[in-house]
Design brief:
The complex is a heterodimer of chains A (758) and B (489). With 758 residues, chain A is mostly helical. Chain A has 29 helices and six strands. The longest helix of chain A is centred in the middle third of the chain and has 21 residues. In chain B, 35% of the residues lie in helices and 16% in strands. In chain B, the strands form five sheets. In chain B, strands 1, 4, 5, 6, 7, 8, 11, 12 and 15 form a nine-stranded mixed sheet that branches. Classes of the chains: A mainly alpha (758), B alpha/beta (489).
């Protein structure tokens, strides 16, 4: 079987190739074999000039580093290929150079990757890794072209690049567009027109405040003929309180926010005051460096304010156990590791967790460095095993009503409470020693380590550094990752995919930036001239032609760039789980648009909590639905019980909040269709809207148009209107008019466009 | 920079292939190049076999995993230890315990008094398997069963231990075994999910350990592969039921208009993904018929209901779920995962375990024989077992031991599970524990070994079915797992 595989790939190529050239549009199923990668890339794709960072390193990282990478425990034949010295070194056994700069053709690498003998060829068959012909050619060509080595791209400090020269300057609105236009021109793609105002306003509303515009707001915008009507709208939305909610809903995934402790009986915790702070911080546009510094180390800032301490709740959002019988230290270690892993993913886009058990297999992060980084978070006076029913395990902070009234009014304390207690970080007075843990196990201590950061990224000069020093290290101008990682995440928020498509991996196994100059331009501009002003960055993005262009695609562009990696059109995207529900609530008129406060429990199917609880869970043993206004709050306020998260949100790919997530899945499933068709909450909303529109004193065509515009934001064209009308008439032949109208409303809520950002 | 851009076009082409061409190509190809891939992949099926698996001829096409949540006590059910009974009340020798980690629930106990099985054991069948009197029905089918008496795990508490069995990792976040199989092999049917979950509560300890929906979660795989819980509630799948005033004909009509209007939008936006979403609505529509049909056991003949026992027509019981499991595999659902709660006997074990044993005894035996009489046992694998075992020493005071209200604590070092059907040796027992039922003396089977062996039965090389996430290739078996060929036919 194994021997035959290469031959079996040929029909693969034929059939896939054929499909590609026919631009097959049959997308019935979700395809995700993400490991076919290079099989479909043939030798004709080998670039003329092979670049180490962009072509070579992804191959050797993926196929060689597992045995010849940074992990010295696993390293075979004492050979490492992740460093310059390693690549040019002499092999131990044969005394031949891996890459021989004096005699390129004699390089051992070429011989080994092409060898036909199974015991000599690299990678060896038992690794289950194999180089494709394309990959072999790339490696060979790189060597023959002189084998130039470069430091990993993301570890090189970004410099502001020159704005590229392009032909079609007319298309551009700001600097971003020059970088995008360069790609469009280089790849012979067509420029797209600007989007109609009608579609653009809905796009902008969802992106900035997470809610759809009303028909009246759309009309006002359409009627506003002033040249700065769009910019005024952008400004207004950035000033809206709903902006903070939209931004915070993304931050909740990163911060793995939950309203329960997450293990076993999964009892309740209080962390919503921290969530209220996040919304407030976004709305008051605290610069990103402060936003992060407070969350990581607010308690260590000299004369820290209460607000700065509240922000540190960020690193207490991890799961905590109350399962009787566990060994507390084992879990305490888990919490500390969670903080380290979350922080590294958030700030550096690195998968540091791989170095928890052994040195990283792909990136230059040692086992010691993981625990040196871990040590920053290892010094709070916390419990591994908490008391059953503890809503805010120590260290904690209590905020009284009078404090809320005197400056902390972003905490939306309900009238029924006169104080609230929640978790925060507080450095213990006695510094806890940190040891490297063998295989990551809490009780297998190796050598002691002091606080440190991954030196491949940038060494930390200060000795005995604490979390505040770490925060300052992140915002050191020399740090190559911080600014790139954050602008990439924000870009992803608007375009669905980051400039680096793997926002959680800027390491050697991650994707390379599709537009490295744009990434660096955005990063340096945000850091230096904008001084980490997030609203400025967002405004820059949404004012670009790249953002404002239409999502409709020409055949040419589709055939040359079906995935739209070069952004020659606006990438149409499915609404997030929160937006889908908020859109239904807002458009129907049911939404209670109120800021902050304790999480709420909207309508959900009965029995979901009780059927999995074993009788434990305290206040969360049974789902007790909220009442009144709290049934219709925005989804960011929906109570998050981690072991049974809100089903309608999970069905639409919300993150589970078990761990830090910087990217959600994007799938289509039958369960999503069922939810849109039959979720009682959504039906209730549909009926609410249809009865209100039906009551209006206008003719049926106008009613249908009104309904359609309220839900999709767009006026139906003639064809659509007649189909909608036919459906209504069909239903009306068996139901009375108002019932037929209800059904029409449900149909429109199920339209694809309703759940898309076009 | 030119070259870099070419690189991206290629990248891009690759992604495109992954998303579009591959499904038709992969489908056609499945039968051309892979002689083992004879799945009834249907062009309208939503979940497809994309990896061109299996790697080799499979023995199993479907699996019913009867998960016994809480940790059944092996000494009271299958692992007969007369010496334990003889040594009742005697402290567990340190030479046996060997400084083993205990849970916080018994680590403070001053005495670790041994205690044997709560009822008598006898040998049954041609295989002469020892089974406790608590399981009169299973005793009769031992010649169909393949016992593993040397299961062992690393986790000592429920949450990490169940998560470990289901996902290969103690910490949450990885895909469940059912999701892996759905990802690797696709769906065998076009009307039902490929991974279905059924829950029941034990009568032995109605208030016991909780479950978590993440146990049947898809982790980093597509949510198409998540386990779908079929509930005994009036809506067996969440949001399955149409509103009361909408007839089936009206739903069909609504979907026809919906797809016409959506197609209008394909023309308008050129977004080819819309077609995929139209097909999801069609699958949803089919599920609206197929799920209630499956859940309805009213047309099961009297003799079948009788076979599964007195609880078989009470929705939500283990017995009713066993019938559903059979119906689901009949309809070619690939992975049916049952969870039966209530096995966590820290106290009152002699009373509680009777209830638990009674819950599962007749239905499990019936399920195996029912599958057999329908010819389904040949390519359906049945697995019965919990997340860990229980200690040979008693939990609780000396008085509790005296008046039979003692319990047993969690024991990860050894416990018993059994399998039946596709590709496993019937009437066979593998692995041995010592005379005190405390340590394994022969042929240990680790959780990752079991997972590797199950994948092997499905024709999958567990080291090769990987998913690349955050730069690393993940497997169900992490970096471990050894196939236990000795238990295979």
């Amino acid at each position: 079987m194994k021997k035959n595989l290469p031959y079996l790939i040929i029909p693969f190529l034929l059939i896939f190739g054929l499909n590609y050239f026919k631009s097959k549009s049959y997308t019935d199923s979700y395809i995700e074999n993400n490991d076919l990668n290079f099989e479909v890339k043939d030798v004709s794709n080998v670039p003329e000039n092979v670049d180490f960072n962009f072509h070579v390193n992804p191959i050797i990282s993926d196929k060689c580093f597992a045995c010849h990478g940074p992990d010295d425990k696993q390293r075979k034949a004492n050979l490492r290929l992740d460093t310059k010295e390693g690549l040019y070194q002499m092999t131990e056994d044969l005394l031949k150079k891996v890459v021989d700069l004096e005699n390129l053709e004699e390089s051992e690498m070429i011989r080994r990757i092409y060898h036909e003998n199974e015991s000599i060829v690299m990678p060896p068959p038992e690794s289950n890794l194999a180089l494709s012909e394309y990959e072999k050619e790339v490696l060979k060509k790189w060597i023959l072209q002189g084998a130039k080595w470069k430091k990993h791209w993301s570890f090189i400090k970004p410099e502001i690049p020159e704005i590229p020269e392009i032909i079609n300057t007319q298309w551009t609105s700001n600097e971003i567009d020059f970088f995008i236009a360069k790609n469009i021109e280089n790849n012979n793609l067509e420029f797209s027109k600007l989007e109609s105002k009608e579609i653009l306003i809905r796009r902008l509303y969802f992106d900035i405040i997470g809610l759809p515009p009303t028909v009246e707001e759309i009309d006002n915008f359409l009627n506003d003929q002033s040249p700065d009507s769009y910019e005024n709208l952008v400004n207004r939305l950035l000033d809206s309180k709903n902006y903070g909610e939209r931004m915070a809903s993304i931050w909740m995934d990163i911060a793995r926010y939950g309203d329960s402790h997450g293990y076993q009986d999964d009892t309740e915790r209080t962390m919503w005051p921290w969530r209220d702070w996040v919304i407030h911080a976004y709305n008051s546009n605290i610069p990103y460096d402060e936003f992060i510094t407070w969350q990581l180390a607010g308690d260590l800032i000299p004369n820290a304010t209460k607000e700065q301490i509240i922000a540190t709740g960020f690193n207490r959002n991890h799961k905590i156990t109350q399962e009787g019988g566990v060994i507390p230290e084992e879990y305490r270690v888990e919490y500390v590791a969670d903080r380290a892993i979350t922080t590294s993913k958030l700030m550096m886009g690195l998968t540091m967790e791989c170095a928890r058990c052994h040195s990283h297999k792909y990136d230059n992060i040692t086992h010691d460095e993981f625990y040196g980084f871990y040590s920053f978070f290892n010094n709070i006076d916390e419990e591994g095993l908490i008391q059953y029913g503890d809503y805010a395990p120590k260290p904690r902070l209590t905020i009284s009503k009078s404090e809320v009234n005197k400056g902390l009014d972003f905490i939306k304390l309900p009238d029924s409470l006169d104080k609230v207690t929640f978790m925060v970080m507080k450095e213990s007075e006695n510094l806890r020693k940190t040891y490297v843990l063998n295989r990551g196990l809490y009780n297998l201590k190796l050598n002691e380590v002091k606080s440190m950061t991954p030196s491949a990224v940038m060494p930390l000069k200060k000795a005995n550094a604490n979390r505040l020093d770490l925060a300052q290290w992140f915002f050191d101008e020399e740090n190559p990752l911080t600014s790139r990682v954050v602008v990439n995440r924000i870009w992803q928020q608007f375009f669905g995919v980051g400039i680096v498509a793997t926002p959680d991996d800027f390491g050697s196994q991650g994707n390379r930036p599709i537009n490295p100059e744009l990434l660096d331009w955005l990063a340096v501009t945000y850091m230096k001239s904008d001084q980490w002003d997030t609203k400025k960055l967002i405004k820059r993005i949404v004012m670009s032609s790249t953002y404002k262009q239409t999502s409709r695609t020409s055949d040419l562009n589709y055939s040359l760039d079906p995935e739209n990696v070069y952004l020659s059109r606006y990438p149409r995207q499915k609404l997030s789980a929160e937006m889908i529900r908020d859109n239904i609530l807002k458009s129907s008129g049911l939404l209670v648009n109120k800021l902050g406060g304790p999480s709420v429990k909207p309508l959900q199917p009965e029995g979901l909590w009780d059927e999995v609880t074993g009788g434990g869970g305290g206040s969360l043993a049974k789902y007790i639905m909220s009442t009144g206004d709290n049934l219709y709050r925005r989804s960011i306020y929906t109570f998050w019980k981690r072991t049974v998260p809100p089903p309608a949100m999970m069905i639409f790919d919300a993150a589970s909040r078990d761990n830090c997530e910087v990217q959600r899945q994007n799938t289509s499933t039958p369960l999503q269709s069922l939810t849109l068709m039959n979720n009682p909450e959504f039906q209730k909303a549909a009926l609410h809207l249809s009865s209100n529109v039906y009551k209006m004193n206008i003719d049926i065509n106008e009613k249908i148009t009104k309904l359609y515009r309220t839900i999709t934001g767009r006026s139906p064209n003639k064809n659509e209107l007649s189909k909608l009308k036919n459906y209504f008439n069909d239903e009306n032949s068996i139901n009375n008019e108002s019932v037929a109208f209800d059904k029409l409303c449900m149909l429109i809520y199920n339209l694809d466009e309703t759940s898309q950002k076009s | 920079m030119e070259e870099i851009h070419k690189h991206f076009i290629n990248n891009n082409r690759r992604n495109f292939l992954k998303k579009t061409g591959l499904c038709i190509g992969g489908l056609a190809l499945g039968s051309i190049v892979n002689p083992f891939n004879n799945s009834n992949d249907d062009p309208f099926s939503v979940i497809k076999n994309q990896l061109n698996l299996p790697h080799f001829a499979p023995k199993a096409k479907r699996i019913i995993y009867l998960f016994q949540s809480g940790g059944p006590a092996q000494q009271d059910l299958f692992d007969y230890k007369p010496k334990l009974t003889d040594m009742r009340g005697i402290d567990l020798p340190e030479s046996v315990r060997m400084g083993q980690r205990l849970t916080g629930m018994t680590s403070g106990q001053d005495k670790f008094s041994l205690v044997g099985g709560t009822t008598k054991f006898n040998q049954y069948g041609e295989s002469r398997a020892w089974v406790s009197d608590l399981l009169p029905y299973l005793s009769k089918v031992v010649d169909e069963l393949c016992f593993i008496k040397s299961m062992n795990t690393e986790a000592i508490n429920h949450d990490p231990a169940v998560t470990f069995f289901q996902t290969g990792s103690q910490q949450p976040g990885r895909p469940s075994m059912g999701s892996w199989l759905s990802y690797g092999l696709g769906s065998l049917n076009k009307n039902l999910p490929s991974f279905v979950v059924l829950l029941s509560r034990g009568t032995g300890r109605p208030k016991g350990q909780p479950l978590y929906s993440r146990l049947w979660g898809n982790g980093f795989l597509s949510s198409l592969h998540q386990g779908v819980q079929f509930r005994s509630a009036k809506d067996p799948v969440l949001f399955l039921k149409d509103p009361e005033n909408l007839s089936r004909q009206e739903r069909r009509k609504m979907l026809d208009y919906l797809s016409e209007l959506n197609e209008e939008q394909i023309n308008m936006f050129g977004d080819k993904e819309i077609e995929s979403r139209i097909s999801q609505y069609e699958m949803a529509y089919r599920m609206q018929t197929s799920v209630p049909e499956t859940m309805d056991i009213s047309d099961e003949p009297e003799n079948i209901l009788k076979m599964y026992g007195p609880n078989s027509n009470r929705p939500g019981t283990y017995a009713a779920n066993c019938i559903l499991a059979r119906k689901l595999v009949e309809k070619d659902v690939r992975f049916v995962q049952l969870y039966h709660m209530g096995w966590d006997q820290h106290e009152n074990l002699p009373t509680q375990i009777r209830g638990q044993a009674n819950d599962i005894d007749q239905p499990t035996a019936a399920l195996i024989m029912d599958l057999k009489q329908r010819g389904l046992l040949e390519d359906t694998l049945v697995v019965w077992g919990g997340e860990f075992g229980r200690t040979s020493y008693s939990q609780g005071s000396q008085a509790a031991l005296k008046n039979n209200t003692y319990g047993r604590d969690h024991h990860p070092r050894c416990f018993t599970i059994f399998m039946a059907g596709a590709g496993v040796k019937p009437g066979f027992s593998y692995g041995e524990t010592d005379d005190l039922g405390y340590n394994i003396v022969k042929d240990p089977v680790h959780v990752h070994d079991l997972q590797a062996t199950i994948l092997h039965l499905f024709g999958i090389n567990h080291e090769k079915m990987t998913y690349k996430y955050q730069g690393r290739r993940f497997r169900l078996t992490d970096v471990h797992g050894e196939i236990k060929h000795d238990i295979l036919t």
